[in-house]
């Protein structure tokens, strides 16, 4: 799965995102996708999403279902 492709990310998926203020450090925040904010099919820095917790960030890691 590629975090840069919108088709690979679905609401309800577990992901790790980097928030705007954490871009320099690369600190990741884990959560469940609530809404996909990027309209284009791909984005070189990752698809922007809003997590169920309200956090907005770009997806860096998609956690596979078990």
Task: Name its key features.
66 residues; mainly beta; 38% strand; single chain; globular
In short:
This protein is mostly beta strands and 66 residues long.
Notes on the structure:
With 66 residues, this protein is mostly beta strands. The chain is built from no helices and 4 strands. The chain has strands spanning 14-18, 28-36, 48-51, 56-62. Strands 1-2-3-4 form a 4-stranded antiparallel β-barrel.
Order of helical and strand elements: EEEE
- By helix and strand content, what is the structural category? mainly beta
Number of helices: 0
In total, the number of strands is 4
| Distance separating the two termini | 14 Å
What is the strand arrangement across the widest sheet? 1-2-3-4
- Rg estimate, integer Å: 10 Å
- Helix % is under 10%
Low-confidence stretches: none
Tell me about the biggest sheet? 4 strands, antiparallel, barrel
Strand content range: 35-45%
Give the overall average pLDDT.
96
| Shape assignment | globular
Q: How are the SSEs ordered, and which strands pair?
A:
Elements: E1 14-18, E2 28-36, E3 48-51, E4 56-62
Antiparallel strand pairs: 1-2, 1-4, 2-3, 3-4
């Amino acid at each position: 799965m590629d975090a840069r492709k919108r088709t690979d990310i679905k609401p309800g998926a577990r992901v790790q995102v980097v928030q705007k203020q954490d871009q320099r450090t690369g600190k990741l925040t884990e959560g469940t996708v609530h809404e996909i904010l990027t309209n284009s099919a791909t984005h070189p820095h990752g698809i922007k999403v809003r997590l169920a917790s309200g956090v907005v960030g770009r997806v860096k890691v998609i956690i596979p279902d078990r």
